[in-house]
Amino acid sequence: ERCPAMTPAGPAWPRLRVLWALWSLLAVLLSPWRLGAVEDNQECTWQVVLNQFETVGKNHGSDRFFNQEPLDTVNSLLGLLVDSPIDLNEKYMGFPYYLKINYSCKGEASEALVRKGHLMGLKPVVLVTFQSSVNINHWKLEQLQIQMEAAPFRSKEQCDAEEVCVMSWYVPMPIKNGSVVMHVDVSSNGLGPFIPNKRFQVNINGFLEREQDDKLKFTVGNELFNLLPRYFVNVSSRPLWCTVGQTPVLILGGIPEEKSVLLTDTSFKDFFLVELSIDSCWVGSFYCPKASFTSTIYDAIATESTLFIRQNQLVYYFTGTYITLHQSNHGSERWVRVLANECIKKLCPVYFHGNGSEYIMALTSGKHEGYFHFGTITDGRVSFEMLPRQQSVCKWIQVVVCSIIWATYIADDYNMLLLVEVEDNSTRKYFQVANYDVVTDELAIFYAIPEFIPDARGLEFLMILGTESYTNFSMVPKGMSYNPYNNLLFIWGNFLLQSYDSENFIYLADFPKELSIKYLVNSFHGDIAIVTETEEIWYLLEGSYRVYKLFPSKGWEVYISLQMMQQSSLYAPNETMVTLFYQDNNLYQLVYLVNSQQSELVKRLVPVEQLLMYQQLSNRYFLQRQGSHLTLSFTNLCPFTVMHLRDLPNPQIYTRQERYRAKPPRVLEPSGFHTENSLAVYQGLIYYLLWLHSQYEKPYAYADPVHHSTWWKNKKQDQDYYFYLASNWQSAGNVHIDVDNYKKIYDLSAEYELPERIFLDKGSSYSFSIFLTVRSHSFKSQPELGNSFQLQNEVDLGVVLADPGCTEAVVKQKVPTNRNSVLFWVMLRDKSFCLNQGVSGHYLMKTSMLVKVVGSAGYCFQNTIHGPRMQGNLMMPVFIGCPPGKRLAFDITYTLEYNRLQNKHYFDCLHLDPEMPCFLFRDIFYPFFLIQDLVTGDSGSFQGSYVLKVVGGGPTLDTIREYSEEEIYRFNSPLDNTYSLIWTTKNTTTTEDSAFNIMSHQSLGIEWLCLENSPCHDTVPPSIFTPEFFFKVLVSNRGVDKSTYCDYQLVFLLHIHGLPLSAKRAFFILIVSTSVFLSLVFLYIIVCLLFPLMVKGCNILRWKINNILTTEFYYTHSSSSGVGSSTSGTRPTVSSRISSKVVENKAETEKIMKKSLT
Predict the structure, then answer these.
(1) What range(s) does the CATSPERG N-terminal domain occupy (predicted)?
(2) What CA–CA distance (Å, rounded) separates 944 from 1041?
(3) How many CB atoms sit inside 10 A of residue 615's CB?
(4) Residue 664, preceding bond cis, omega within 30 degrees?
(5) In this structure, are residues 478 and 516 in contact, taking their beta carbons and an 8 Å threshold?
(6) How far is 770 from 750, CA to CA, in rounded Å?
(7) What pLDDT, on the 0 to 100 scale, is given for residue 1023?
């Protein structure tokens, strides 16, 4: 049985105080908007559970997402769909799971609501977003989505109604190779009741297996079902560590004296308590001093497929079974102990993957103090290396005693930031930050942390220059946090230092020096939450210098009062925070609630905006006398009232989001409800659509440059016929497949917010407008010449660039007349010189742009259906480099057309192949290429420069071989002097080393040579037709094209026919042909001269044979006639007639002989 959802831990929070009258009044004043919004929207919410095919139609229960193998049960059903736009020769597979979708509203029965929504035309729209794999070297980096419409399905349980009692909507849950993390966004189709959009985490759990009794069990340990209060009450909270956005399964340790962890695959919407099956041994020695042994799991880190834990000084890892990632079973059978001979005091997470791998760091103590172990996780395999390689950090910084207390790895730069504690001879401790280069194995100190906390003297922040005064409080750092998007580095302890360049640091004075930070929680989108040792929660908005206290605070007390008025089940008088984490840019708590009836662990949202708004109102009110009574007024410090984004470009060209749309087949049933068979058909269609997407890697591009991943392109002309069958209820299987419901979407429109992230190629830009409705006091009139006045506003907009050396921003302001508003036009542009060329989607540079309205941080809010949202600060991550989804293709259509035009003719091969046309050897070859954008569907001629090389070939497709580097040079380089060139060109532009020719779309073409030492020289024809050859051609723009960051590489086959023979072979064939010809002529002459003699000889021979036969017959007949004369009458005999005839022939023959001799 699954544990109920749970909540955060720390010292028990105090009971709520009775608020004074003003606070009560403030709570009442703030509650109507919230209560009104609840009433208008009925607090309806989507509900999604996972079902296997066998459980479809059951009212209760859900399944766990662990089966990753496709099913072949749908192929037989699709094979029955004759006269439908599918290819019956293909094999269709299905997915093992469905998503069951319902919705509920507060105070109403869910079954009646679903029936009502169905009758009103409501259909849930499900958008599944696949997260790309960490290993970009194995899996293609792509942002893929599929949008589906859920199908209504009646419950299979007992029902007394004529039509339906209980129903739900179902949609297939697709699986994609290379993805184990999926986001499911459920929205309405616009009909029926209003239900806000909701996102669900649906991740594959690779740490489950099925037992023989068909029950699921965890491979990492045994599931526990009792959540004892001692696990959480008065227990300190702990951070939740994982690879950001890539982790399907999260784990959280810290349960006292138990080797148990909380494990979830839904970001703690639900979870399990699992006792780990580890040996729990404790090895103490002189180099690893340990005062005591504990079973507590102190550090727990989750990566894409591997879990890491630390218990005492021991480190273990467990790799899950993810065949969609590894395409084989790399899963662990048990926990693997690593670094067995080391004394590990701490594990440090690396939040971002890089270069196709994930990372983890283990800090040592004892005999290897001053070293650390750097772990790399690639494709599920784990390896550790002890760093630095040459000498310890202590020797690098030339001290005797030091200790590494924290490490942060920047994967894109291969740099390690180390927080080092140094103890000098006088036992005085001080701290330094060192920079270690993993590639060069060099270390340097780049910042020495001050010994004491600076005296800010009432300022919000203070730049550390070394000339400021200090307090008597020692600076005690505990850790660091780095955001690779904005290069913002935090050093935290009983203070908070921040730096944008890792050199100049700013002290944030709002955080009290009497407190000590336990851990930081970074959203990496501009928000940071801080948890102290006393379980206080603070908040910092990146780009500002003010730190806000969220709990405990006056704003928290107001918010709790409102929740108690609504009798919320997510709050209790006694509660303990277990952890704090960001999900989808929202801050959540995992809290253990202690109620009078029961105790439970729940996940709840931390309403940061509401707390700040309540806190602002509580500090900015005043009483104003109006007549005989006092009125309560509030001061709004926000410089504007409304903020809108305008002129946003279509998102796909920047977000690189590929989206497919697939609707369920139409069922030919009056009620419109689907059956198990129609859902299975839906499964097969979606599986085949995604399979076609994964298989599209054709090097050739024809007239339709970007082929849609569809299977009906050869049957679309029959679409009207299929519709006719469906209209007459004659479709096979009682389902109708509409070809227009399965296609790729290229024209997504922009929403009214900045995208989650954008990609910029070389020199490209992104622009939008910000429209602000400002307050009247924000304007002033500025006199100008000619007694005219120019209206000016006092609202300023700032743009902060994380890497101003690589990007630039342009801001233009326009103040409309009599509009009480101001319009800002913002453009972000790449400077075109910060990055080298790379493969599409690889080696991208992380940066960001922060747009902020001056004076808005913490003061400006906008009411939405989801509650207040902060305004005035817009942080957008930016990836610079070659965007995903771009490719180079051989433009065969235009190449054929242009070659026919230039060469005045075109001769194809004898055996035509539409996928690979032929080109004649003696013609000049003019190749053309396309840049295809698989995301937007755009396609255009490649205008850049490129290098063309023949890298393989053979006379037939079966005999093609790859050439070595030395052969590639000889066959393609104009510097070759071994008579090995395959081709040449009249272009004079070459690479810097003159090794290869540089081509472009304006090149003068290619002339085929096939010199005597080339592989295509002297090709033996297999028949009487001219020789052919297949060239394997590589086209690359790397190092020669300055127009893009993309390193395009295209390999395709080129079929050339009409190759000439070598001189020797041609001469040999000429000699042989001439000899055969002359022999035939001589034979003919001989036959003509001897033919008459041969005829005469044949006649003489025939006469002699006849003569011999006649003579023998005569003598034989004469002897027999004498005997028969006594019995014979007067009738003449036959022999007398024959003998007379022979005498005549003999006389004639003698005449002929005499005539011929004369």
Answers:
(1) 44-203
(2) 6
(3) 21
(4) no
(5) yes
(6) 14
(7) 75
Does residue 172 share a domain with residue 49? yes
Which stretches does DSSP call E strand in 523-627?
A: 527-532, 537-541, 547-551, 574-583, 586-594, 599-605, 621-626
Q: Which of 763, 746, 934, 787 is nearest to 835 (CA)?
A: 763
- Express each pLDDT in 563-608 by its tens digit: 988 888 899 889 999 999 999 999 999 999 998 778 899 999 999 9
Backbone φ, ψ for residue 417 (5° rounding): -100, 125
Shared domain check, 1047 and 898: yes
Q: What is the DSSP letter of 964?
A: P
DSSP 54: G
User: Which tokens go with 212?
Assistant: 């023989």
What is the spatial distance between Cα 996 and Cα 1011, in angstroms, rounded to a whole number? Answer: 17
Contact 664, 731 (CB under 8 A): no
For β-strands 198-203 and 181-187, DSSP reports them as antiparallel
Q: For residue 740, what are its two tokens?
A: 């227009």
**Cβ–Cβ under 8 Å, residues 55 and 63:** yes
More confidently predicted of 1132 and 320:
320
* Token pair belonging to 539: 């908040």
Whether 248 is in a domain gets the answer no
Contact 449, 455 (CB under 8 A): no
In Å, what is the CA distance from 900 to each residue of 893, 1000, 1061? 11, 19, 25
Buried/exposed 759-784: b ≥16 CB within 10 Å, e otherwise: bbbbebebebbbbbebeeebbeeeee
CB atoms within 10 A of CB 1089: 10
Within this chain, do residues 64 and 174 fall inside the same structural domain, yes or no?
A: yes
Q: Does the pLDDT value for residue 1084 go beyond 90?
A: no
Could you tell me the two tokens for 767? 């622009």
- The whole domain housing 861 covers 758-781+792-880
**CB contact at 8 A, 968 and 951:** yes
393-420 per-position pLDDT tens digit: 999 999 988 999 999 999 989 999 999 9
- Asked whether residue 768 is assigned to any structural domain, the reply reads yes
Residue 794 sits at the vertex; the CA angle it makes with 777 and 781, to the nearest 5 degrees, is: 70
How many CB atoms within 10 Å of residue 217? 14
Kindly state the tokens that stand for 175: 């699986």
**Same domain assignment for residues 79 and 183:** yes
CATH code (residue 829): 2.60.40
Burial of 644 (0-12, 13-18, 19+ CB in 10 A): middle
State the Rg of the chain over Cα. Answer: 43
Distance, in Å, from the CA atom of 690 to the CA atom of 423, rounded to the nearest integer, reads: 60
Q: Which amino acid is at 573?
A: P
Q: What is the number of residues in the chain? A: 1158
Cα separation values, 665 from 79, 689, 907, Å: 15, 14, 47
Give the residue from 1030, 1019, 910, 908 showing the smallest Cα distance to 958: 1030
> What token pair was written down for 918?
């032929």
DSSP H helical ranges for 17-74: 21-41
pLDDT of residue 596: 75
Could you tell me which of 417, 356, 413 has the C-alpha nearest to residue 845? 413
874 & 892 share domain: no
Based on the fold, state whether residues 114 and 150 are members of the same structural domain.
yes
In the predicted model, is pLDDT for residue 707 greater than 60? no
| C-alpha–C-alpha distance, residues 109 and 103, integer Å | 10
410 is written with which tokens? 């920047």
Check whether the bond before 816 is cis (ω within 30° of 0).
no
The alpha helices in 521-607, defined as continuous H runs, are 554-565
Q: What's the CA gap between 167 and 674, in Å, rounded?
A: 11
Largest CA distance in the chain: 181
Backbone angles phi, psi at 177, to 5 degrees: -60, 135
One-letter identity of residue 605: L
Residues in CB range of 510: below 8 A, 6 or more apart: 460, 461, 545, 546, 547, 548
1035 and 910 share one domain: yes
